[in-house]
Amino acid sequence: MITRTAIAETQSPKFAGHETFSLRYGWPKKAVDAAAADPLVFTRDEAVITLGVGKNMVRSIRHWGLMTGILEETPDQPNNRGRHIRPSSLGALLFEAQGLDPYLEEPGTLWLLHWNLASHLDGPTTWYWAFNHFPEAEFTKERLIASLQDISEQADWTRVAENSLKRDVDCFIRTYVPSRATKTLVLEDSLDSPLAELELIQEIEGGRVYAFNRGEHSSLPLAVFAYALLDYWQTVAAHREALSFEELAFQPGSPGRVFKLSENAVSDYLEAIERFTDRVIGYDVTAGLRQVYRRGKLEPLDLLQRLTAPRRKGPR
Question: Dihedral of CA 54/58/59/60: which sign?
Fold first, then answer.
């Protein structure tokens, strides 16, 4: 069992905010455009008209915008308390009118959104836990809920109701697993989350069991892997000039862990990263010791300028 210290660093658990709605295709651009035009849009009664959705979906769009890192609370607003929201640098780069991928057409953008959801302790708890600490390769909803109940008790999180965990796990599954078409399924509920395209979680045994898909993900661009590597580096070891292969492949919050990459896949990306970064980031294998090191500074956002490069097999 994972000890309390594995996740207790998070200031408070986040098991709500999505209003049971998984992320939808049109929401990232809608969120960025609305917040750019009016930083208080999500507090206004007319937000349902501005965004063209119901009240619960207004709150859900705000939640997903913040959790995926494309929106942020405006830092210089006193006593803001989440009211004043603006597009982040990443949100503007991707989804503004002249952005890299305003209509969410590139797989790399989906991988970026997933990275921000699942790689940080202060993100949605189920997402972080499932991709970084949950020890089971195959699982049921009940097993994932039980594990979240265990860490809630270990971390002494009060006021976490079982129903809240059930709703969160349901939303988590719908984020990554395509829905099944049935005659009774409401049209709005049949709209799959774009992150289902990543095929990170598969449905097996008639839908009662799910499995993480760990291996080589050919749709993951080298630009996004490099962005994630620098983000992870800044988060866990900003003062260090080198990281071990094992840290990048296996540690919680690392690219290898969050992207569910095989050891060979991580190695392939690292072997390609020196040329991609013009030798600022290097990868060295000496006497069985594998290390990534940096010779200078790089801005993670700058690496995304090649996000829409032509697709080809393998790291790019």
Answer: positive
User: Which CATH architecture is the domain 222-306 placed in?
Assistant: Orthogonal Bundle (1.10)
Q: At what angle do helices 263-276 and 222-237 cross, to 10 degrees?
A: 100
Average pLDDT over residues 247-258: 97
Which CATH number is associated with domain 26-103?
A: 1.10.10
Residue type, 177: V
Tell me whether domains 26-103 and 222-306 share a fold: yes
Two tokens at 69?
Answer: 């890192």
By CB atoms closer than 10 A (0-12, 13-18, 19+), residue 79 is exposed
Which of 76, 74, 92, 75 lies closest to 84 in space, CA to CA?
Answer: 74
- Give me the DSSP letters along 108-160: HHHHHHHHHHHS-TTS-HHHHHHHHT---SEE-HHHHHHHHHHHHHHTT--S-
Whether the predicted model's global pTM rises above the 0.85 cut: yes
Torsion of CA 156, 62, 199, 25, to 10 degrees: 170
Kindly report the number of other CB atoms within 10 A of residue 197's CB atom.
16
Type of residue at 135: P
The beta strands (E) that lie in 148-280 are given as 201-204, 209-212, 242-244
Q: Are the beta carbons of 68 and 116 closer than 8 angstroms?
A: yes
Q: How far apart are CA 222 and CA 235, in angstroms?
A: 20
What pLDDT score was predicted for residue 292?
97
pLDDT band at 179 (very low <50, low <70, confident <90, very high): confident
Phi-psi region of 279 (alpha: psi -120 to 50; beta: other; left: phi over 0): left
Domain segments of the chain: what residues?
A: 26-103, 105-213, 222-306
Task: Give the burial string for 153-179 (b: 16+ CB within 10 Å, else e).
Answer: ebbebeebeeeebbbbbebbbbbbbeb
Spell out a b/e string for 252-273, using b for 16 or more CB atoms within 10 Å of the CB, else e. Answer: bbbbbbbbbbeeebbbbbbebb
